[in-house]
């Protein structure tokens, strides 16, 4: 008998045999992990053109008829909450605020019993005028992407001159009570890698929680190179030139960010090191794309078509069973360090963050 260990209880099975899935209603997998965090992409469209995500001309967006309808999204989230143990739902994109009916979807999901925690990841464009409505619709937390504080650099990275909109949107979110506003930053070598300290100082002064994210191989151009990525070790080295960092004693659980107390706390900074310090063994996420494809991992190369089940007349029990089966087959890890690693065909904007 052998045991597979991933930092969680292993499942014993005969060598070479796939273990049978136990009779458990939750989204368990073969390595003892349980998915309770659902990431829902509402659209693949975006109003920025970040250089590390997509080409200047954008991408071929999914036709509207291929995207899940509002009713279909709410039904699938409801199945996740009522039957599969989902207790946190994060809405992403593309840019989720481009989704018509966003507030309606949020309101309906927040009315589910038990009510899941609801969060939203956005680029901040248009947030200033919508923050109060998003809070009223049920959003508990916001993540805003911001890679630089310099207007010209922002324009070069995003190919849009909109930094003032983003900064105003973050302030509006804080005023609307969406605290803490978390700021997601990707450092790019030779582009903005000198801004780790200024960005952290800005967030500390403004009351935001900064999280640095290692650049991942999820760009539409498939041009990612590990040698060009700013690593977690480099980020922490830069920060320690100006701050004292100590590990946050709070239990991390399945959270993607490794957190550090800044100058003794209570302020913290996070680093999401998906590439150099993978946390696959504690992953608790399951993902739904805008066109209704279920993904067990951000880097998965297979998907389960829940849209076809929905539109084919499947009942909630059948959809839940397909969801459980898909998650049971989840791989042990993303495999970025494997010699045969292949980047997903879909870019991040189509998968959802």
Tell me what you see in this structure:
This protein has one domain: TIM Barrel, CATH 3.20.20.70. The radius of gyration is 20 Å and the shape is globular. It is α/β, with parallel strands linked by helices. Mean pLDDT is 90; it is low at 1-15. A twelve-stranded mixed beta sheet has the order 11-12-13-10-9-8-7-6-5-14-15-16. It has helices at 70-83, 102-110, 131-137, 151-158, 163-175, 196-206, 232-240, 306-311, 316-328, 348-351, and strands at 2-3, 12-13, 27-28, 34-35, 37-41, 88-92, 117-122, 141-145, 182-185, 209-213, 245-247, 258-262, 268-272, 285-288, 293-295, 304-305.
Query: Which percent range describes the beta-strand content?
Result: 15-25%
N→C terminal distance: 38 Å
Which series of helices and strands comes N to C? EEEEEHEHEHEHHEHEHEEEEEEHHH
Pairing-aware structural class of the strands and helices?
A: alpha/beta
Query: How can the largest sheet be summarized?
Result: 12 strands, mixed
Mean pLDDT: 90
Care to count the β-strands? 16
Oligomer state of the chains in this structure: single chain
Provide the spatial order of strands within the biggest beta sheet: 11-12-13-10-9-8-7-6-5-14-15-16
At the fold tier of CATH, the topology name is TIM Barrel
Q: What is the top-level CATH class?
A: Alpha Beta
Rg of Cα set: 20 Å
Q: How many distinct folded domains? A: 1
Which CATH architecture?
Answer: Alpha-Beta Barrel
CATH superfamily: Aldolase class I
Overall helicity: 25-40%
Number of helices: 10
Q: Spans with pLDDT under 50 lasting ≥5 residues? A: 1-15
Form type:
globular
